[in-house]
Automatic annotation (TrEMBL):
This is aldehyde oxygenase (deformylating). The keyword Metal-binding does not apply. InterPro entries: CER1-like_C (IPR021940), Fatty_acid_hydroxylase (IPR006694), NAD(P)-bd_dom_sf (IPR036291), Sterol_Desaturase_Related (IPR050307). It is found in: Endoplasmic reticulum membrane. Residues 131-271 form the Fatty acid hydroxylase domain. Its EC number is 4.1.99.5. SUPFAM superfamilies: NAD(P)-binding Rossmann-fold domains. It holds the Pfam family CER1-like_C.
Length: 622
């Protein structure tokens, strides 16, 4: 049997729970129509404005906490927020829904004054609210919080909140209805007291709720925001305001640091963790930071998908990328960010995870796919990549893998430019194309005797053609350049050269049902494929799935091992836990401890070696 107030009554509604706001919205809309403008005299209208401001407060703190380029050196807990925690906290806003509905009930009561009867500002109310907060909310919350850590109360109610291993701003609102009622009482008592004393004001309602949410989000942000020097200069502040380190210690130890915002009450109760301030100083000084073992150097795909980064929207980044209509109004902001990055930005850290004790990060070059094809921008892009490699080398990174267009042959020879220019690099530069080729080749059914290959003279196309011809598979290589074709054909052993055939038109493949697509196909070009054709792809962006009588493969990818830790964002359109093959290639290079660079042309003899190494370490096809 479910314990009372341990589950949300609208849990089964899913996204339809937001219909609970319907009566408030309807009342506010009606008032707006009657007044011909914003109904500032309606409590329903102000509750909706508060709802928007509160949601924005949580969102901005969430974004800040995940901006690793600002915060990575001051993170309290090193671990990342994984998919399991993200899913558990998905309905974090149940607290906000409940408090909004309770606010609507309270303001509709005859005991509550009409908003038109209130002052905008009343300093008496602010002073009284502060007094009630210190005298009642703080000690009452600490007492209730400590009680929630006892026996059945913890197992039935509070353990859910503590199941989140890494705190983040959304964790501040995550819990059961009972916990939310305790928080509501702590937040609402000062406001109610001021109103009962006749000193309430509109600014008090807005201000007190904002400060309450702000401090809750700050404490749960997992990022130190108050300098330890401030506490050294003013020691008494340690007892007036808590820190993210202070709260993280509570989440880890569970038997200390119970206060709401003021450690003074923990000090009076003897429940302050003895290392609270020492650890806060260490975190603030960056001593909790760590050098990554592996870096995946990515780039932005396009303006809209730039909002897929972990510090934008959790609902986007934790799922494979898809265009959402709700994001379209934000397109102008994303476009302005693109322009800003061209002139002012440098490579920044986007995400991280841990794999078998190794620290893996994703860095992003602040350039968009289309910019790689603008000749005047190529030199600047290469400079950005070079600076990232040199930075990684200076830091002590072991392996750096180049993503997609960052290893473009026409741009830098698949990374050869940087290795040749800096022969003493300690960091190993990897393009990951060897594993990409292996993934594509292992997708081809064993009974296939003929394939049609576009992008045939690219790095990947060359390697795939040379590998398949050794298996006595006939490869129709689409290219207009006989010179490039003959160069590749001569690389094959003499007895296998006959299996490489140059074709110049798509109709040459009208009977071939296995297409290896390394160059973008238009709908017209796809029409030449016979029904039942499967399109294996290694082209970015993927081709449009135009043919309903054919099947389309995804971009070459690998699923990370099951023991990956702290992974909480999807890599572009990939499923959870799946990364592009070039990313996985760098991971294998790091796990194997290989000392060579993997740049330039693909070594066909190493394709099977890399594939077997990937499988040995637990990576698998998605």
């Amino acid at each position: 049997m479910v314990s009372p107030l341990s589950a949300w009554p609208w849990a089964s509604l899913g996204a339809y729970k937001y219909l609970l706001y319907g009566p408030l919205v309807w009342t506010a809309v009606q008032a707006w129509r009657e007044q011909g403008g914003p109904p500032t005299g309606s409590w329903c209208f102000h509750l909706l404005v508060l709802l928007a401001l509160r949601s924005l407060t949580f969102q901005l703190w969430f974004s800040y906490g995940n901006m690793l380029f600002f915060t990575r050196r001051r993170r309290v807990v090193r671990d990342g927020v994984d998919f399991q925690q993200i899913d558990a906290e998905w309905d974090w806003d149940n607290l906000v829904i409940m408090q909004t509905l309770l606010g609507a009930m309270a303001t509709s009561s005859a005991l509550f004054p009409a908003i038109t009867d209130l002052r905008v500002w009343d300093p008496r109310g602010w002073a009284l609210a502060l007094l009630i907060h210190v005298a009642f909310s703080e000690p009452a919350f600490r007492w209730a919080h400590k009680a929630l850590h006892q026996g059945p109360l913890f197992s039935e109610y509070h353990s859910k909140h503590h199941s989140s291993p890494v705190t983040q701003p959304l964790t501040a609102a995550y819990g059961t209805p009972l916990e939310s009622l305790v928080l509501t009482l702590a937040m609402g008592a000062p406001i109610a007291g001021a109103f009962l004393a006749g000193a309430g004001s509109v600014s008090l309602v807005y201000g007190h709720i904002f400060v309450f949410d702000y401090l809750r989000c700050m404490g749960y942000s997992n990022v130190e925001v108050i300098s330890h020097k401030t506490f050294q200069a003013f020691p008494f502040l340690r007892y007036l305001i808590y820190t993210p380190t202070y709260l993280s210690l509570h989440h880890q130890e569970k038997d200390c640091n119970f206060c709401l915002f003021m450690p003074l009450f923990d000090a009076l109760g003897g429940t302050v963790h003895p290392k609270s301030w020492e650890l806060q100083k260490e975190v603030d000084q960056g001593k909790n930071d760590r050098v990554p073992d592996f870096v995946f150097l990515a780039h932005v795909v396009d303006v809209v998908s730039s909002m897929h980064v972990p510090f934008a929207f959790r609902a986007c980044s934790s799922l494979p990328w898809a265009t959402h209509l709700v994001l379209l109004p934000l397109w102008p902001i994303a476009f302005c960010m693109m322009v800003f990055q061209v002139f002012c930005s440098k490579t920044f850290t986007v995400s991280f995870y841990y794999l078998r004790g190794r620290f893996h990060q994703t860095w992003t070059i602040p350039r968009y796919s289309f910019q790689y094809f603008i000749p005047p921008m190529k030199e600047g892009i290469n400079h950005q990549i070079e600076l990232a490699i040199l930075r990684a080398d200076k830091m002590g990174v072991k392996v750096l893998s180049l993503a997609a267009l960052n290893k473009n042959e026409a741009l830098n020879g698949g990374g050869t430019l940087f290795v040749s220019k800096h022969p003493n690099l300690r960091v190993r530069v990897v393009h990951g194309n060897t594993l990409t080729a292996a993934v594509i080749l292992n997708e081809i059914p064993s009974n296939v005797k003929e394939v049609f290959l576009t992008g045939a003279t690219s790095k990947l196309g060359r390697a795939i053609a040379l590998y398949l011809c050794r298996k006595k598979i006939r490869v129709l290589m689409l290219t207009l350049s006989s010179e490039r074709f003959l160069k590749i054909q001569r690389e094959a052993p003499a007895e296998f050269q006959q299996y490489l055939v140059q074709v110049t038109k798509y109709h040459a493949a009208k009977t071939c049902k296995t297409w290896l697509v390394g160059k973008w196909l238009s709908p017209r070009e796809q029409r030449w494929a016979p029904p039942g054709t499967h399109f294996h792809q290694f082209v970015v962006p993927p081709v449009i799935e135009f043919r309903r009588d054919c099947t389309y493969g995804k971009l070459a990818a690998m699923r990370l091992p099951k023991d990956v830790q702290g992974l909480g964002s999807c890599e572009y359109t990939m499923e959870r836990g799946v990364v592009h093959a070039c990313h996985a290639g760098g991971v294998v290079h790091c796990l194997e401890g290989w000392e060579h660079h993997e740049v330039g042309a693909i070594d066909v003899d190493r394709i099977d070696v890399v594939w077997k190494a990937a499988l040995k370490h637990g990576l698998s096809p998605p």
